[in-house]
Amino acid sequence: MDARFGSVDECLGQIGVLARDQHGCRFLQRKFDDEGEDAVNKCYDEIIAEVVDLMMDPFGNYLVQKLLECCNDEQRTGILKAGDGVPELVSVALNTHGTRAVQKLVETLRTPEHIRLATEALKPGVVTLIKDLNGNHVIQRCLQRLEAEDNQFVYDAAKACSVEIATHRHGCCVLQRCVDHAADSQRRALVNEIAAQALVLSQDPFGNYVVQYILDLGLPWANAEVMVRLGGAYAELSMQKFSSNVVEKCLKLAGQELEEHRNVVVREIMSSPLLDRLLMDPYGNYVVQSTLTVTKGSLHAELVERIRPHLPLIKNSPFGKRILRLLLESKKN
Fold this sequence. Notes:
This protein is an all-alpha fold. The chain has a domain at 231-333. The protein has helices at 15-19, 22-35, 37-49, 51-55, 60-70, 73-80, 86-94, 98-107, 112-122, 126-130, 135-145, 152-160, 162-166, 171-181, 184-196, 198-202, 207-216, 220-229, 234-238, 241-252, 259-270, 275-280, 284-294, 297-307, 311-314, 318-332. α2 (22-35) runs parallel beside α5 and α12 packs parallel to α15 (184-196). The longest helix is centred in the last third of the chain and has 15 residues, at 318-332. It starts with 14 loop residues before the first helix and ends with a helix. The model has no long low-confidence stretch (mean pLDDT 92).
């Protein structure tokens, strides 16, 4: 293709065809780099005429990305308004090749008007995008590159659909990035919503990671809210694969202000009629081990006394041996 065309002028009239060809696409990209504005201006009208399709083409998407790097603000406005606008950009963002072009579009937004056009176009499909293999990268790019207030459309959706998003393979990761990039007011609203849903989320294969992420932030008010929401269910949660990790994290939280909340968790576990099952459970036994590790004084002594009657039952089980070792260590201390 390079041998057939020496200049952009010779390509005019078939830019769309060349853009879809591996060698033609590379030739045009190189011309944009070498000749800059002149080459861009000559090709722009032909590219914009089919820019939506080109964004989703295996090779054409690279030419659109290069155009976004090189074009002026007026031309970028044209790209944002191309096709049918709102539904088009979401569809492109969901496409394997289109997601790259839309991410580049987000990276190159320069004016308040461009940002408004892009965010309004993405807003109707934001939850779909967050949960999509390709689309989630577009939302993450918005979080990385735009100001927090420009991403309010993402935070509104994340708060309104927190459980739907947090319990999704891709959504749980995006939700964590939302927390990372939020302004203070956005973070507080989102964290508060996640904490309020802690009981449901803790038991989910993906949602539990979101709750643990919130606990790791070290916000005493958020940690206290999570622990209160899980109250009354700690024994049952301790015997489930995903939620047992959340319970352990609650027990290991540092800070004097959370000590009373932690003690409530310990008392609930040691007073539970399920204690004997917890001691034998492949997940629950780790929670009991954590209670023995984090308690001290009279509460620890009371916990040991609660466990003692169950020792004959557990002494021959692999889990029980760990508990016995901890009891012996606490007796020495």
